[in-house]
Each structure stands twice: as C-alpha cells, then as structure tokens.
Design goal:
heterodimer, A: alpha+beta, two-stranded antiparallel ribbon, 5 helices, 5 strands, B: mainly alpha, 9 helices, about 0% strand
C-alpha cells in the first residue's frame, strides 16, 4: 500500500518535473536576445569598476611622482646645508673646518659646506660606555652618508669636516709641577714682560666690637658678616 | 550534438553552444520558476539570472550524466527563486502548534492532468506553495527546507500540511466543477 502510494507520488512528481506549459508563454529567440542584453549589462559594471581602479592607480602614481619632485626640489634649494647632531665640545674643536651655524643652541648644529653642491647628511654617533675601542671611547664617531657619485669628487676637493682628536694631557702630581710661586719670576723665565695686576681679594675683619681684645694677641681671623 | 559536447563547448565560451543549451532548457526552467513565483515577468527575470549564473559557473562543472546536469540547472533556478522570495519576504510563518498531520488522496491527483495540478499549485499562497514544491516535487527534507528558507522545521511541516489541505479542497472543488460541466 505504502509502495503504491510512493509510486503514485513519484509518478506525478515526474509529470510535473518535466511539465512544460503548452503553448509556451515564452519566445525562445526573443528570450535569448533579452538574455544576451542582460548579460551585456551585467558585464558593463565590471568594466566600469576596472576603469575606476585604473583611474585610482593613475591618481596615486601622479601624487607619488609629484611628492618625489617636490621633495627633490626642496633638497636642491637647501643643498648647501648639512645637518649634524653632535656635542658642542666636538664642534668647538673644528676651528679650521667649515663654517658652523648653530640653529639649535643645545644639541643641534647646522654646517654649511663651502665645497659640497649636493646634500650631504653627516651623522655623529656617540660611542657606548662599554665600547671596545678604548681610545675612541670619549670621541664621537662621525659618519658621512654620501651618495656614491660624490665620493670621487670629495677626494679631489676639500673635505667638509675634519675632526681633530683633543690633546690628552699627562696626569702628574702637584708636587711634580715646578710652578713658580711668583708670577714675576715666571714671566722672567719665559722671557715675557710682567704687568702686575691688583686682583680684588677678600676683606677680612675682626669682630672687635663684640670682644674688644688686642689685635696683636688674637690669632683668630674674624669675618665680618654684617656691616 | 549531445549534452556533454554542448557543455564542453559552452565551457570554451562558445556562444552557439550556449544558445542551444538555453533553448533546450529555458521552457522547462521557466515553468519551474513559475511554480515558485507565479508572476510570468518575475519568472522570466529569474530565468535570465539563473542562466547567467549557469554560464558563469559552467567552466567548473564536471559532466557525469545528463540527469546530473539537469538537476544542477534545476538547483540553480530553485536557488534563484528562493533568493527572490526571501528578498520579497514572501513567507508567512505559521506557529508549530498549527502543524497537523495531513494525508492527501493520491487518487485525486491521478484524476487530474498535469496542467490542472500545475494550475492548482499556482493558486496556493506563496509560503505553502514554496514548501510544497520543495518537499513534494524537489524531494527536500524539512531540515533542508528550514535551512534554505530560514524557518524552523516545525514551520516547514505546518506549511506543508496546510498546503496539502488547501490543495485537496481545491482539487475536490475542481472535480465538482468539472462534474457539473460534464452533466448535461
């Protein structure tokens, strides 16, 4: 009974599945043309979308190139300036080097090179405390980052900055110094003329008001604190 | 040219093969779409969308047999119809308590022609018709219907039972009408 019912259901399922309305309410040729038109309309937006992407890419390229151009233009106008970050003590030693203009008085200085025609960036690195180079431990390391094309021209021209190492003084005991006590004698030794200069010294007062004692007997030095 | 050759040609973007395929299946698929959306204009629109999807995805189709290809086209069209109905929010949900077991007299369907059954199915409300089509004609389970339509399994069952009851009434009234017509 159940099988019979299933068979019947399958039967009219099949009939409906392959049922085609007759007469067909649909002209197949016109339907195909309509479908082709629809397909064409579907593909147009994708083409438009690709054009948007191309336009966006072109815009980005233009922005990038203009940024590059303006960046180079600014560098060329500022080509004489070389920025250096260094300690003031380092730059004080470069008395024979290029002119120094202090743009930021504390740490940053700007060097103007007389020779260089293009931008040179000089970075000065301070060595670390635990550096393995004992001689350079107190010296700043100067690194010139120059374009390769500039290296040949630099060899033929005057260097931009030459740093001389500060002189190391020999450490001696005070007694070893045979310093003459008298300045007049020192000048005589060196063969220089001596001009005595009266330097102002501390004025010492005794507190004789409080304790009226004789100055000859009092060995204490008393400083007058109030007028 | 058999269907396998047609598929291979269509996979190579051959317009003639595509046109041949369209003419082979458009009539049946339009009837299928009409079973779901009733309106001929909407059905034609869905048929076009379905064929667009078909030709877009045909390069990835692997031919096994003609029936598998036919079922594949049918599935594309049914999905298009269900998407359309979901967009229109055409489903009326019925609470599960209203679900009743209903058995249809198969003899009733035997007494009617395929066209008459088709006409009666089109007269069903959209929710009933969709579930009836999916369950009775496409052979979906209630779980599959619930997933495809975004409804609960109970709702699917109740919609099917109500569809059957309504269809039975319509068949009986149609029979009575034809009986009156036949009487002199």
């Amino acid at each position: 009974m159940q099988n019979n019912s299933d068979h019947k259901i399958q039967g009219w399922r099949q009939r409906l599945d392959h049922f085609e309305e007759d007469p067909a309410p649909y002209d197949l040729e016109a339907g195909w043309q309509h479908f082709q038109q629809k397909r064409l309309n579907q593909t147009v937006p994708s083409k438009k979308r690709s054009w948007y992407w191309i336009a966006a890419a072109c815009l980005l390229t233009v922005v990038f190139l203009s940024a590059q151009f303006f960046n180079r233009f600014l560098i060329q106008t500022d080509s004489q300036k070389v920025s250096v970050k260094a300690l003031p003590s380092l730059l004080k030693n470069t008395s024979t080097g290029p002119d120094i203009i202090t743009s930021t008085p504390k740490t940053e200085y700007v060097l103007v090179s007389k020779v260089e025609q293009t931008k040179n960036v000089i970075s000065v690195l301070m060595p670390k405390k635990d550096s393995v180079l004992p001689l350079l431990s107190k010296e700043p390391i100067v690194i010139f980052s120059l374009p390769l094309s500039m290296i040949d021209s630099l060899q033929t021209t005057k260097p931009a900055l030459v740093l001389s190492a500060p002189k190391k003084l020999k450490v001696v005991h005070l007694n070893d110094i045979n310093y003459p006590a008298n300045r007049a004698d020192l000048a005589a030794q060196e063969g220089k003329p001596y001009f005595p200069v009266n330097t102002p010294t501390k004025k010492l007062y005794g507190n004789s008001n409080l304790h009226p004692v004789k100055k000859d007997k009092d060995d204490l030095i008393r400083i007058k604190l109030f007028p | 040219m058999n269907i396998e050759d047609l598929i291979h040609e269509a996979q190579k973007n051959c317009k003639a093969a595509e046109k041949c395929m369209f003419q082979m299946y458009a009539g049946k698929m339009l009837t299928l779409c009409r079973r779901y959306v009733k309106s001929p204009e909407d059905a034609e629109e869905l048929l076009g969308n379905g064929f667009l999807k078909l030709f877009q995805s045909i390069p990835s189709f692997r031919y096994e047999n003609d029936a598998a290809f036919y079922n594949w086209i049918k599935r594309i069209m049914i999905n298009e119809c269900l998407m359309f109905l979901r967009k229109k929010q055409a489903f009326k949900t019925v609470s599960e308590s209203e679900a009743e077991n209903c058995s249809m007299e198969e003899d009733l369907l035997d007494r009617l022609s395929t066209k008459q059954i088709f006409e009666l199915i089109l007269q069903l409300p959209v929710g009933y018709r969709t579930v009836f089509n999916l369950y009775e004609l496409e052979g979906f389970t209630h779980a599959e219907i619930a997933t495809s339509l975004g409804i609960s399994i109970g709702t699917s069952k109740s919609q099917l039972n109500k569809a059957k009851l309504l269809l039975q009434k319509k068949i009986q009234s149609t029979e009575a009408y034809y009986a009156k017509q036949q009487r002199p």
